[in-house]
Amino acid sequence: MTTSLTATPPRPPVPAPARKRSRLPLLTLPATVWVLAVFAVPTMILLASSVLTYDGAKVTTHLTLEHYTDLFGDSYFRSVLWDTIWTSVVVGLACTAMGLLVAHFLVRSRSRLRTLVLLIVVSPLVSSVVVRTYGWLVLLQDDGLLNKILLWAGVTDAPVAFIGTWFAVIVGLVHVLLPFAVFTAMSSVQGVDPALERASRDLGAGPVRTFFRITLPLIRPGLISGFMLTFAISLGAFATAAVLGGGRVQTLATLVRYRVVVSLEWGQAAAVAVVILVVSAITVSALLWAGNQSRKGI
Predict the structure, then answer these.
(1) CB atoms within 10 A of CB 247
(2) What's the pLDDT tens digit per position in 12-32?
(3) Are 280 and 236 in contact (CB under 8 A)?
(4) How far apart are CA 46 and CA 38, in angstroms?
(5) CA 226 centroid distance within chain
(6) Would you tell me the crossing angle of helices 145-153 and 129-140 to the nearest 10 degrees?
(7) Are 210 and 198 in contact (CB under 8 A)?
(8) What's the rounded Cα separation, in Å, for the pair 172 and 165?
């Protein structure tokens, strides 16, 4: 009996951790420069514009908080602020609820309609917001398809004025933002082990109870992220509110445009934009905290 001895191949040298750490700042430098260029610098300019005084078209170096005190002392601005916030909340909740149902169908169902539903969800993303909004303008106008259906069904005797109402704005925003909620919810539903749901049903729980007791708690952080995303985008949406609002619905974004283009109050326009930024930051921070607490609870 013969035995053969083979030499153990030498292990490749392990790079020193210190060398990896030394390269990390260089790798993050392009992303850092990009964030500073597209976010930090414009934000600083916006903040500065909201506290500067204007002499006609000229900017003076005198700093003041007069733009903010004038805004919050104006009952019209407070009503626009409240209308924009509750509208964004409704849009966020509607997108999250419908996005969850669509995402659960796309992930769990084996129906042949999955591809068709997925194409319907993706289709709004291949056209611009303006094109989609003008599509709703055609459907919701007095002689549009929706009014023709209502008149044909005998629901109403005269065309309903949808354009220029909050209903039209909410419908348009939900259509624009629904894909974001669907894809966010899909990633959460895909992360749930189907064995947990099967085990729940094997123990006697029905599909509804399994969804609310097993699936929903596990995907709650994803739902919070979807609401956060759609709420923040809706808060600053301009094209949909401007077109479907018909000039009678005023949001913070359309108010910024009015102060810049019509009344030429650039300082107040910058202050309104800062209010949008602050409300978004507060909401996102609160929802991130809620999402972290939810993950700890799981």
Answers:
(1) 11
(2) 655 555 555 556 677 788 888
(3) yes
(4) 12
(5) 7
(6) 30
(7) no
(8) 11
According to DSSP, residue 123 is labeled G
Burial of 67 (0-12, 13-18, 19+ CB in 10 A): buried
CA 219 – CA 217 distance, rounded (Å): 6
pLDDT tens profile 73-130:
889 999 999 999 999 999 999 999 999 999 988 888 888 888 888 888 888 777 778 8
* Max CA separation in the chain (angstroms): 103
Q: 212 is written with which tokens?
A: 């609310």
Q: In angstroms, rounded to a whole number, what is the distance separating the alpha carbons of residues 146 and 263? A: 36
Q: Which long-range contacts (CB under 8 A, 24 or more apart) does 246-250 make?
A: 246/163, 246/164, 246/168, 247/164, 248/164, 248/165, 249/83, 249/164, 249/165, 249/166, 249/168, 249/169, 250/80, 250/83
| pLDDT given for residue 297 in this prediction | 61
* Token output for 202: 């094997």
- Which amino acid makes up residue 33? V
